[in-house]
Design brief:
The chain is of the alpha+beta class. The strands form 9 sheets. Strands 13, 14, 15, 20, 23, 24, 31, 34 and 35 form a 9-stranded mixed β-sheet that branches. A 6-stranded mixed β-sheet has the order 3-2-1-4-11-12, with helices on both faces. It comes from Candidatus Nephthysia bennettiae.
Amino acid sequence: MRVATDIGGTFTDLVYLDERSGRMGVAKVSSTPRDPAEGVVEAVGAAGLRAAEIGTFLHGCTVVINAITERKGVRTALVTTAGFRDVLEIGRGNRPDMYNLLYHKPPPFVPRRLRFEVGERVGWDGAVLEPLRIEDLETIAEACGREGVEAVAICFLHAYAHAEHEEQCQARLRELLPGVFVTRSSEVTREWREFERTSTAAMNAYVGPIVDGYLSGLETQLSAGGLAGAIFVMQSNGGMASLELARQVPIQLVESGPAAGITGAAELGRLIGEENVIYLDIGGTTAKCSLIQGGQPRITTEYRLEHRPDYAGYPAMVPVVDIVEIGAGGGSIAWVDPAGGLHVGPRSAGADPGPACYGRGGDKPTVTDAELVAGVLNPDYFLGGRLQVEPELSWKAVAGIASVAGSEVPAAAMGIIKLVNANMINALKLVSVRRGYDPRDFVLVACGGGGAMHAAALGAELRVGEVIIPQMPGHFSALGMLAANPQADIVQTRIMRLESTSAAAVEELFAELERQASATVRRHGEGAAGVSLRRAVDMRYAGQEHTVRVAVEEAPLELEAVERRFHAEHRRAYTFELPGTPVEMVTFHATATVRLPPLGWRELEADGRTAQEALKGERDVHFAELGRLSTPIYERQLLAPGLVGEGPLIVEEPAATTLVHRGQKLAVDRWGNLRISSS
């Protein structure tokens, strides 16, 4: 039995797969922010499972990102090269929005009094210019003890090229500070840029003890229930990691849950023959979107937390699926500013108190309340009827917006829905149009509790080829974990100019990185056979600061082919190329993946059921341009493959509601996916 759980801001989802029978099942319970592990254990019980029958337990969590955004990490110190104590404070001079007069720098996670310097120096090429003054560490350890430091981050200049000083420092500090979490930048990333490396190491230390405590608690609770199988955690790169690796580099869990959904979308795309996918996950708190090209999710090491036009955020230089995230979900609160302008988000009602309709004391109108007022959601079918909601509280909450706007309550609800859709369109364009991709060449895979409600309208606006609502969309991130494999990414910065580099030298470097990646995934993965390898390199024209990532697919290696691909990628991203300009390879990437047995999507049988048999009835639904229409409602579990319907219509299932608009066609494919196309 394989079980996957995903903790969201509002709900905790579980999907299980009985590998012997192929049977799958789901559960959804409210998240428990005070102790997220409680929600996980509750979900196992809600699914009717016994921990003792679970062979592999897969887990995605928000512990890391919550600890950072809520500033609930531990007291952290930084040890760095003499003269570089203030790198965290100085940061970068560039801004997200150059002309934003409200811009302010984010405060560092480590205060200045806890940033310590040590004598040592390494050159950019890895040459030791000054040996490590190991004796300096005793004074530093004494200061850390006095200050009650619980974690220490080590980041030396150019440690990506020479890690020995950091390794020596880490070993000595662990001797001097037993019980303190000590991490070094070179075990997190071997990529250059000292501010980004320092920021990443500091955040890794800041959340280290929190993640260790959480995973230990989860392991204890599951073991107490009889779990004897292996536990794996979802990484931000779309692969799985053992508890040991997750404890060592917890910052790699920063986008644990969303990465699983993207992995699942890539797997689904390969199944249905659509390898170019725009992924959208609308949950209770946020909407997340990403792009999958050629069956591979886009991976970046230029990820930033809390990135806004007026706030640079915090760089995390670890491999992360390239996600754009906005504060627009089912729990996002609608509000009116002093000038009378309507806004939706980024504040959210979360799981507690939740939308007004939950009746838990929340009185602010949310997107969920607006969908109830509009008639899109069925008040008697939340979580299949297990969650009782009060639609009159939604009307009361939205009426507050209507009174300010001078409109009817349904019109105010439609205003909220249109505005949140506009916010989501902007996010979808950020991952597609603004990066040189034409949405018409992609399909939109929408999931999450709210994805199916908004996807048809968003797909029509983007003009994607098709909108696909997979089976179990409300549990899709957890489902994606079942499709994930143990994976390790090794990154190394080493600048090589193509014209003076041989293919043999590049091949030698890639071979070493692949050896490290394979060793890591075999040690922390599930089994030792079937390791597949991928290569990529970040390239630039000489004189440029930043790079374009290029896949390296040739065997044997052909540098001319890699250069041609770089020119093409640069032209696609920036509309131009510079033939004749020297080209440099900057950072090399090797990815090792252990291929587990495939998820085994089951085809459904066309048993002759008609659409009439799935029809539950009709209800009035408000549409932006059409007003109130009597709309047919279908039960998804009763829709047979091959059925086709014309919008407007609604398809209901326990954890999601799919809305199809007028002028759109709905078809059910042989895997049970809902496929929506616009005329």
